[in-house]
Amino acid sequence: MTTPEDVKTPAKDPRELPDVSGLVVGVLGGTGDQGRGLAYRLARSGQKVVIGSRNAERAQTAAAELGLGVEGADNAECARRSDIVIVAVPWDGHAKTLESLREELAGKLVVDCVNPLGFDKQGAYALKPDEGSAAQQAAALLPDSRVTAAFHHLSAVLLQDPEIAEIDTDVMVLGEVRADTDIVQALAARIPGMRGVFAGRLRNAHQVESLVANLISVNRRYKAHAGLRLTDV
User: Fold this and answer.
1) Gap between the Cα atoms of 212 and 125, Å rounded
2) How many CB atoms are closer than 10 A to CB 166?
3) How would DSSP label each residue in 20-86?
4) Is the distance from CB of 136 to CB of 110 less than 8 angstroms?
5) Phi and psi for 58 in degrees, rounded to 5?
6) Residue 14: pLDDT band with limits 50, 70, 90
7) Angstrom distance (rounded) from CA 32 to CA 29
8) Mean pLDDT, residues 223-230
9) What is the tens place of the pLDDT at every residue in 114-157?
């Protein structure tokens, strides 16, 4: 007699990702270099994008400069209008920004790409927030949101360069729910040359965020815009 335990459900292929082309992506900090670059690349790939700023007029001006159907709004309106919200604000404003948007971000898929870094005469170095990482701080501040972490290791220079057709890099994606990380991986894959790769739960985000300090050192020494590629995946 066959029992339910005898019937094995095939494991889902980790390379099978959902269609995210119809989702609206908001970028908090979309007037900064990293946020602006991500907004540009996603809009260029056909994604509907809204960039947010503390100042709605500043966001609208930046959106008009980007073109491609990008819209601008203040941070709260950006969060309300978006299905996925990328957090690309400066580290020193991270907590305050998220605290102020807790209601607007409730139920949203939030993608934190903030890197807590310090700088001194020896260069960049990683900071470790009390919560463990920027992503874990976001999760603590946004209990009603679905928080993931991704897009940490991208060069803002390459993202914003219209002459570059493809961004040759992998995006490490972290989160607690597979369906959410699948969506973020699929979003990364919308950008030509880019691939999203699952890299663990949020408790592992600190290592991913801090690696940016090493990439800054690489880029300064070799005058490059280095990213990451994961082998044998």
Assistant:
1) 9
2) 10
3) -TT-EEEEETTTSHHHHHHHHHHHHTT-EEEEEESSHHHHHHHHHHH-TT-EEEEHHHHHHH-SEEE
4) no
5) -65, -40
6) confident
7) 6
8) 95
9) 999 999 999 999 999 999 999 999 999 999 999 999 999 999 99
Domains of the chain: 20-222 (3.40.50.720)
Q: Is the pLDDT of residue 7 over 50?
A: no
Residue pair 114/94 in contact by the 8 Å Cβ criterion: yes
Q: Tell me which H or E stretch contains 218.
A: helix 205-222
Asked whether the predicted pLDDT for residue 221 surpasses 70, the reply is yes
Q: How far apart are CA 113 and CA 42, in angstroms?
A: 15
Q: How far apart are CA 119 and CA 122, in angstroms?
A: 8
3-state secondary structure of 172: strand
Model confidence pLDDT, tens digit, residues 148-183: 999 999 999 999 999 999 999 999 999 999 999 999
d(C-alpha 215, C-alpha 190), whole Å: 24
CB 24 within 8 A of CB 71: no
- Sign of the four-CA dihedral 119, 121, 124, 127: negative
Helix axes 33-44, 56-66, angle to 10 degrees: 50
Report the C-alpha gap between 86 and 94 in whole angstroms: 12
Give the closest residue to 127 by CA, choosing from 155, 89, 151, 92.
92
pTM: 0.92
